[in-house]
Fold these 2 entries.
Entry 1:
Amino acid sequence: MRFAVLVSGTGSNLAALLAAEAAGALAPGEIVVVVSNRPGVAALDKAAAAGKPAIVVDHKAYPGDRPGFERALLAALAEHRVDAVVLAGFMRVLTATFIDAFPARIINTHPALLPAFPGVDAAAQAIAYGVKLAGVTVHFVDAGVDTGPIIAQRAVPVHPDDDAATLQRRIQAEEHRLLPAVARALAQGRLVCEGRRVTIADATEPDADQLV
Ligand code: GRF
């Protein structure tokens, strides 16, 4: 399965995906292109260092024209014969123009136990609310903000002395394991989506403990 990874910033999740691929832990998935909606971000350097095509489709070039931006994204992905899309810190909401091109083939990682704390600054939201458990959710993408069917979640404790930054770091360590594992399961055709409920077929393989 030929993955595009969409990014907007640092790219630590991209780095985790690239490391998994290098270790043979993404197969039969492969990352064939990395696309950023923002020029000059560190994620693009990480992609280039790994020898991946690193492309910018700048949303600012499409003011007031979200469908135009998404059509440009789709064209870039088509050039690389992409089968599936991993959103790894991609900070634009996608609409049906894009989503309908990859049915049940777009996944996202979110640094909270959805449906709690969708949107931006999830770790800060968790600290402000006072929850004792935060976490990470990997989910299919629909047209809402962090509302798609949940594939896998991991809980992370909130420590009394945490601030948003320390909690975010603990969450990210977990998502760097979970996102590649889910991407691999998608590539293996093991994700079964029935309405909102997602199951992982044949969860008896060595990596199963990552996902159940
Ligand atoms: C991650 O925490 C991810 O969950 C959220 O944005 C952050 C991106 O971080 N959607 P990075 O660019 O992968 O380092």
Entry 2:
Amino acid sequence: MLSYQHAYHAGNFADVHKHLTLYAVVDHLLRKDSSVTYIDTHAGRGRYSLAATETSRLAEYRNGVARLWEARTSLQSNPLLSDWLAAVQAAQQEPSSGRLDHYPGSPWWLAQRLRKQDDLQLFELHPGEHSHLSQQELPARARHRHADGLSGLLTALPVKSPRLCVLVDPSYERKSEYSEVAATLLKAMRKTRHAVVLVWYPLLPAGHHATLLEALKEGGQRKIWRSELSLTAPAQERGMYGSGMLVINPPWGLEQRLAAAMDRLTPLWGDAGQYLADWWVSE
Ligand code: SAM
């Protein structure tokens, strides 16, 4: 049964970390003209009103995107953060108002940057979330399906375009999802070896993400970059204390660009913020 709804968490520190990484990857892909297919296996609603009952209940965005929004003038000197914040601004109801009232989800981040030669496939399994997603204004080249994103990914391969970028962002409601994601990606990478794949995972005191990371390493993936933003030490926290991203086959130069942006961001969380980036697997 699916009970997770991303609206309760929209715009939190993990979303910032995930979408900044996604934004930077897309930037690199757009440097070449050849077409890209984007597949978002766990799409969510697409765009979130911060005033919605679910989002305002926990108001996690206050410790996430709102921190960057308040510091946006001082973050302008970093080009990636400056561009990313301009995109957040464009997602607001009235972009020129200076008010932060919406937060864009992954379908929005991808749809905004589609060129005429690119396409986007979105999968969302929760009927309510899919219904919200289907009401979003998305370009015609963005197709959404009410379907399982992991099997949907395997069915979609190989794609017609020369390049493929996949975002895998599950809710991990079941512990078995960590190994299911790894098994799916190992199958997918056998069909399309050069795909750029981003995988999000939570850092929890139980450390379930190790299952995912180890399985990808044992499965023979040769280039995996890891980026983790954590906010408190595990011993002091019961719930999610950090956000992790793996990028399989990262575009050249991505690490340096993101590291510079994350070095500017992490101090926004004071002593609690810590950032780690390294090669989980390198050739
Ligand atoms: N990617 C979104 C973003 O960045 O804005 C957030 C996605 S949220 C963490 C995970 C979503 O996956 C939820 O909306 C959930 O309903 C959906 N979901 C869960 N299992 C799924 C599956 N097997 N296939 C597709 N969607 C699934």
